[in-house]
Write a structure and sequence with these properties.
single chain, about 240 residues, alpha/beta, Rossmann fold, four-stranded antiparallel β-sheet, 8 helices
């Protein structure tokens, strides 16, 4: 479904991604891990069409998105990708229903009943008219997930989606992700939490923009970072 080939991203003298290559199958849950500054968010932004690579290729369903025009990227984001970020990015003066419908607007259609059903699916059927300031952090993140899914994207990209949540609300979000995964949704989730990563099918681990290793998400945690991670970390000192 997704092929990342020799991906490079440079910001001036800084190389955020350095020859990264891996693939993702349809319906797979991928956890993207690595220390701060390893290129995780840069990777997600490129996969979502929010940024473009300096070199290399990203293909989705055989289409090279790294060569799309701005108009084509906008269409790709609207039709193929849903975004869930650590910061909720909800419009404060719109209620939950209107925030979800905003995503439909950018897709050139709105359907209030469909938006309401999306909120009911994430457990917010009684909170449709509430503005973000009237919702808890977990409820706001559920609005974000409903908004991300309203256009039935092929890919859901999440960048530390539970980073601002307490343990109880984190579990609610993870339960939603597990349900989506069971239904065949393709998920790429940036996380620093090994317990969350174990829920995924595979972990893609980055260090300094390079692929350190790919492991099964359910694999037992090792006592250390692993030989490849250790060598890469040592080389940076």
């Amino acid at each position: 479904m997704i092929e990342v080939q020799a991906l490079v991203k440079e910001y001036g003298a800084v190389r955020a991604l350095d020859g990264l290559s891996f693939s993702v199958r349809a319906g797979e849950w991928i956890a993207i891990m690595g220390p701060s500054g390893s290129g995780k968010t840069t990777l997600v932004n490129i996969l979502g069409g929010l940024d473009t690579p300096t070199a290399g290729r990203v293909t989705v369903f055989g289409e090279e998105i790294s060569s799309l025009s701005e108009a084509e990227l906008a269409r790709y984001r609207a039709e193929q990708v849903g975004f869930v970020f650590q910061q909720f990015h909800l419009v404060p003066y719109l209620n939950a229903l209107e925030n979800v419908m905003l995503a439909q607007y950018f897709h050139s259609m709105t359907d209030e009943d469909e938006a309401a059903e999306a909120l009911r699916r994430v457990g917010l059927g009684e909170r449709l008219e509430h503005r973000p300031s009237q919702l808890s952090g977990g409820e706001q993140q559920r609005v974000v997930i409903a908004r991300a899914l309203i256009n039935q994207p092929k890919i859901l990209l999440a960048d530390e989606p539970t980073g601002n949540l307490d343990e109880a609300n984190e579990q609610v979000i993870l339960d939603l992700f597990q349900e989506l995964h069971r239904k065949g949704q393709t998920l790429l989730v940036v996380t620093h939490d090994p317990s969350i990563a174990r829920l995924a099918d595979r972990r893609v681990e980055l260090v300094h923009g390079r692929l350190a290793r790919i492991t099964a998400g359910s694999a037992d945690e090792e006592s250390g970072p692993g030989p490849v991670l250790s060598r890469l970390a040592s080389a940076s000192r």
